[in-house]
Amino acid sequence: METNREIREIIYYDCGEITAISFYINGFLSNQPRFNYKFIIKRDKPDFLKQAPRNGEWGKFVLRLGFFEFKQGDDSFFFCIDRSDHSSNYRNEGYIIPVLEEVKYYFKTNYNANAIDNDILIKKFKDKIIPIGPSFPLHIDNMIKFMPRIIPGSNNNWTFKESKERLNLMFRNPRLNYLRRLRNTESDLNVFFVMPYYPMHKILNEFRFEVMKALQATVKTKVIVGFAPTQKLPDNHQYFVQPAVYEMRDYFRHLARSKVAIYVRGPHDGISSKLGQLLAMGKPIIGQTISNNKELYYQNPFFKEQFAYDDPEEIAGNVNELLKNPEKAALYAKANANTFDTKFSPEITVSNFIERLFT
Q1: Most exposed of 44, 81, 274, 296 (fewest Cβ within 10 Å)?
Q2: Residue ranges of the domains in the chain?
Q3: CB 255 within 8 A of CB 261
Q4: Which stretch of 91-95, 127-131, 277-281 has the lowest confidence by average pLDDT?
Q5: Which CATH superfamily is domain 177-344 in?
Q6: Model-level pTM?
Q7: Sign of CA dihedral 266, 272, 274, 275
């Protein structure tokens, strides 16, 4: 029989944006029976965040990370999950030094060994930085656990605006079993490539725009491409505005109907959440090379063939070739679904965290 001293606890500090780490929250919740620990939600900041001087830009971005604490008896330590870019400049396109100083493990989606070695400030923490696989926003089944954080009021320092945002995001995010069911959708579109437009990322937008033009010119039929902007686009991009606003479920249904999916990197060449979504849906993919965490990705079946093109014309041409070879597309689709289920699902991703925490 376990004593109280032996009970393991993993504490999530609910003090920031939850949507970005909802994938991992699902993993921690689903792994409780297997690993026999308590998952506790604490509506507070870790002590070191309360005490740390929040000088400079890092203080504006620190709550985009997921903060956790592991406890067993008298032993405890902090760890965090960071989905941001691999670089380290003041806009939080990388690591937050004060956090690296405090945590035992810094789990990083956009892990890049070369970037770490080339940054003298980051390099000394390299043993703390652990590469992890893709993630994307997911619905959290145990909604009641997060409800007190949704209710606004002066006592919990939570405004109505923040409450509305959390409710909106948490109820719009898909369930994982929904994405898996979409694997059985009949494919009646050749390509569906509708992407967000980021006003601050002109190079990213321009690359996506060139991919859209190349797809429309090369594939030609049964192609839906365009931006889904939240504001007016530049005049030269207006032609590619989609007339319909795709709600989240509509977006995934359209994506599931496409015979070949397109992958492009996120801002600053980071891992886009689309990568995990496309794998979970079991789509055959053609797209850009993966810049970060290459060792983790390119060991998987057919990743070298699918994520190999950095030129818009090449992407469109290889999409067209794969459309002519449905047997190969089916092979890619099956392999991608299996890779997600056996390596990149929330439960498996977080089980790897837990095994490290428990050693």
Answers
A1: 44
A2: 6-174+346-358, 177-344
A3: yes
A4: 91-95
A5: Glycogen Phosphorylase B; (3.40.50.2000)
A6: 0.91
A7: positive
